[in-house]
Design a protein that fits this description.
9-stranded mixed beta sheet; 37% helix; Ribokinase-like; alpha/beta; two-stranded antiparallel ribbon; globular; disordered N terminus; transferase; disordered C terminus
Length: 313
C-alpha cells in the first residue's frame, strides 16, 4: 500500500484551495498507524475562519435552517458540520396555524438523547474541536413548535453541548437565535422563555433575537430605536458581548440594531440599519423573490454607507 500523500488541502481566502506541506501532527505518526487511522480533520486542516457545529433543521424541499446556513458559511471559508435537529419533507407553516405554508409535511425529529449520542460519537474520535456553535431559528424551533414531550430537555442538551465544547475550546463562540416567537405571539411552551432568559442567554457569545424575543428576554417594551438600544444594553449585562435585534417594526419599516460590547465597563459600539418593509409574508419561493432580494441588498448597502458616514449610527 502506498503511503499517504505528504500534502493536504487547506481553504484560502485568496484561492478556493491551496496545497501546503503536511502539518506536524502527521510527522509523529508511524507509517503503519497513518495507514489505518484517519487524520483528525480539525487539526490536520486548520482554517483562518474556523470550524462550525450547526444544530438546525433541514427540509428536503425549500431552504431553512442548515440548508440555508451551511453553504453560505462554506463560501465564507468556514468548515461546517451540520446536525439536523429535524428532517422534514417541506416547510411546516400552515400545519401549525402560525403562518402560510404547505398543508402537510412528513419527517423525523431528533430528541435530546439522539443529539447527545452524535456528540459522543464525535468526541470518541477526537472530532469535537469547534471554534463556533450555531443554533438557529429553524434549528431547535422546529422541535418546540410541535410541543413534543421533552422540549425543555432538548434545550438543556444544547446547553450541555455548549459546556462540552468549551471544555475542549474555551474560546468557543456560541451564536444563538433565542427562538420563542414573533409578532406578539409565542410559538414555544411558555416555560421555555425562562430557560432562555436564565440559562441560554448567560452562556451565549452572540444573541440575535427579533423584537418580540428581545422584549421577552428583557421584560421591556420596544417601540423605538432608543428602546432597542437599551434592550441591547440589558442583554449585554446578562452575558453576550454581541447582540443584534434583527427586526423592529417602527413607522411601517423595519430597523435592525447591532451592539458590540468589547470591554466590560465600557459603552458598546452600536449601529442601525433601516430596512424597507415589503408588504408580504414569505415562507417559500415567492414569484418576486429576485425583487425582494434586490431591495434587501440595496437597503443594506444604504445602511452601511450611512454607518460609515456617521459613526454615531
Amino acid at each position: 500500500m502506498l503511503p499517504p500523500p505528504r500534502f493536504c488541502i487547506i481553504s484560502s481566502t485568496r484561492l478556493p484551495f491551496q496545497i501546503h506541506p503536511r502539518p506536524p501532527i502527521f510527522s509523529s505518526m508511524s507509517s503503519s498507524k497513518s495507514e489505518t487511522v484517519p487524520p483528525i480533520l480539525s487539526l490536520a486542516l486548520p482554517s483562518d475562519t474556523g470550524r462550525v457545529l450547526s444544530i438546525q433543521s433541514h427540509t428536503v424541499q425549500g431552504y431553512v435552517g442548515n440548508k440555508s446556513a451551511v453553504f453560505p458559511l462554506q463560501l465564507l471559508g468556514y468548515d461546517v458540520d451540520p446536525i439536523n435537529s429535524v428532517q422534514f419533507s417541506n416547510h411546516t407553516g400552515k400545519c401549525i396555524s402560525l403562518m402560510p405554508g404547505y398543508p402537510s409535511f412528513k419527517g423525523q425529529v431528533l430528541n435530546g438523547q439522539q443529539l447527545w449520542e452524535l456528540i459522543e460519537g464525535l468526541e470518541a474520535n477526537n472530532l469535537l474541536f469547534y471554534t463556533h456553535l450555531l443554533t438557529g431559528r429553524e434549528g431547535i424551533t422546529s422541535f418546540f413548535m410541535f410541543r413534543y414531550i421533552g422540549s425543555v430537555s432538548f434545550l438543556n442538551t444544547i446547553l450541555e453541548v455548549v459546556k462540552k465544547l468549551r471544555t475542549i475550546n474555551p474560546k468557543l463562540t456560541y451564536v444563538c437565535d433565542p427562538v420563542m416567537g414573533d409578532e406578539g405571539k409565542l410559538y414555544v411552551p411558555p416555560d421555555l422563555v425562562a430557560v432562555y432568559r436564565e440559562k441560554v442567554v448567560p452562556v451565549a457569545s452572540m444573541l440575535t433575537p427579533n423584537q418580540f424575543e428581545a422584549e421577552q428576554l428583557t421584560g421591556c417594551r420596544i417601540v423605538s430605536e432608543s428602546d432597542g438600544r437599551e434592550a441591547c444594553n440589558k442583554l449585554h449585562a446578562a452575558g453576550p458581548s454581541k447582540v443584534v435585534i434583527t427586526s423592529i417594526n417602527i413607522g411601517g419599516g423595519l430597523l435592525l440594531i447591532g451592539s458590540d460590547k468589547r470591554e466590560k465597563g465600557q459603552s458598546p459600539q452600536q449601529f442601525r440599519i433601516a430596512i424597507p418593509k415589503i408588504p408580504a409574508y414569505f415562507t417559500k419561493y415567492p414569484d418576486n423573490l429576485v425583487k425582494a432580494a434586490e431591495l434587501a441588498v440595496s437597503s443594506l448597502q444604504v445602511g452601511a454607507s450611512m454607518f460609515h458616514a456617521d459613526p454615531s449610527h
